[in-house]
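Note to self: user wants both folds in one dump. Writing first protein now.
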Amino acid sequence: MFKLLKRFGGSYRANLVLGPLCKLIEVVFDLFTPIIVAYMIDAGVGTRSVQPVLTGGGILLAMAAVAILFALACQKMASRASQGMGTSIRHSLYEHINALSHADLDRFGTPSLTTRITNDVNQVQLAIALGIRQLMRWPFLAVGSLVAALAIDVRLGLIFVVSMAVVGGLFWFVMKACIPYYRSMQAKLDRIALIVREGLSGVRVVRAFVREGHERRRLADAAQDQAATAIAVGRLSSVLNPVTFLVMYLAVCAILWAGGIQVNIGELTQGQVVAFVSYMTQALLSIVYVANLVVVFTKASASAARVNEVLACQPSVTDEGAEPVELWGSAGLPGVAERADGVGLPDTAEQAGAGLPGAAEQADAGLPDAAEQADADLPSGAEQVPTLALRNVSFAYPGAAADAVHDATLALMPGQTLGVIGGTGSGKSTLVSLIPRLYDATEGAVEVLGRDVRAWQLKQLRQVVSMVPQQAMLVSGTIRSNLIWRDAKATDDDLWRALELAQASEFVRTLADGLDAPVEAGGKNFSGGQRQRLTIARALVGAPKLLILDDSASALDYKTDAALRVALASYGRDAAASGELPPAVVVVSQRVASVRAADLICVMRRGNVVGLGTHDELVRTCAIYQEICASQGVEDETVSPGTTVSRHEEVRHG
């Protein structure tokens, strides 16, 4: 809690200081009230004189008016500080969450982060507000009442001290037992948030499989678990008020008994006994309020620790120390000096040592030779630098027993298409997520335009590399506001060009508002295929040099999928003809038809590259690829019935 106050309280220092001081002045008036009442009783009621009563009443009214003014000032300062700091914490927390890598986000989980940025920050806000308004009032009122009571009579003060000790000890034991429950309740709220989020986001799947009852039971069980914890806390807390008032009224009886005797012998006045009772009541009630504050601050402390945990998490993927890459004019290649310094792709001898394909291997793998590159009208020097190169790349998720991607090596030249195919869980998506640095490779190197991705600034890298994720995600707004994510200055012509390439222009033109047509949260007002085409169009805005389609055409029919591939190929040829660097394309798919025409196909199984080559080569040499083709009814004249491939030949080719 103090870390958050130190970090975010600077702008609200005046409110944090003046607010409690205003409350302190109000408390001083509260402490003087019993003394004035005692004066009114002794000097007015006891002597049947009206003037002392009127004088005392006037003083009480004046004190009440001034106290209200200070209370309102304190309330305003508490609101400014708590709401302002809460806003600042949420802003910083959200900004920091957006800077975290996918590995960091996986560690916390989306439901937990949602709870932290909403419920936990609310708890901190409440603690700040009550801290300013009440933290100074009740402890000072309790201590002030005790001192004032002892000043009236020390012997009666002993009853006061004993009663406060009993109530204070009771509160200490109850709060000590309750604190673990409060911490547990926050974790169980995360569980409820997770179930609610899954149920709402997957409502169509739930209904399709008639699992509404199961989901209701899951939520009921989680809510019941959280309710059981809350009830346990309530049972413990329910002891406090009855016992506190029991002790307080027993103490009042004792004071009236002992005080009455002293009044009879003339040691105390009636007004002093009444003042003494008032002070004791104020003090014991103050202990009750302090205990409630302890509950609030206990919850806030647990919430602040969860917020600080996120803020203290250092992103595992950063571009600290990375310098901007000076691209080579319209071609978009790193300058010659950078490649000469060894940042770019090594020469032929170094490639052989690093495991990248040489000239002969490139020919076998379907990579273009020098003549083919010249025919492609690539910019001068483009043939020297692959758009994408993987060098013995391996990656393992934190805590995983095995690599999700193991020892992957390949190179993709400008204008070429790489197809990545394999079964579910083979590591396809993980492999391509290493390219824009959603994750960092644990071994080896990933290079884009001849430069290690870790040497790029993240913003520039993700301008060069554009990725369409598996899940087509749109945000609320308009089609235009979604398309300009990569390039806020994109013109309408640029947007329509991207829509045409993505085969989305036809249905967008049928909308009444065209580019300004509304988009609901998640793009729920569009079909799955329409959402995928819009996300592909968004990725094409800004002319990326490397386009990654991560199974992003799964909802498209075969005709639209084929038209998309033809349009992307035409787009690359047009770019090369105009002297620009043609974009390379990485297509992740489980359809053979989607990757069949690719210049290079990477076949993956259990994180390993088991086949690398063109379609014609793989149907002859890769057993896994043959199985995939056979399962999809893809026949090829190059594979005769009964053809088998030895494991040695398959691994050697991969």
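First done. Writing the second protein, which came from a different request thread.
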Amino acid sequence: MYLVNIKVKDNVEGNITDRMVQHRDWIKSIIKNNQLFTAGAYVDQDRAGMVLLDVDTKAAAENIIANDTFYPNEATYEINQLQVNFKPNN
């Protein structure tokens, strides 16, 4: 699994509300592909959140990130491999 911290920059082109709808559609596409464990926005940071991707390689995580509306220049993506010790239904 890979935990991806996402921080949207201030240089977003277009309407941020519309772009966030596109971003949420991207997350929905990850769900449809059964590659998302969970996702959410940080309550203590503006324009920031995380996705926890259920993939086996960093390359797979990078391929998913490449489809986000803010990629590559309008957000930062910090990718961290996560060793899962406990998981529901495991």
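Dump finished. Worth passing along: The chain is about 30% helix and 30% strand.
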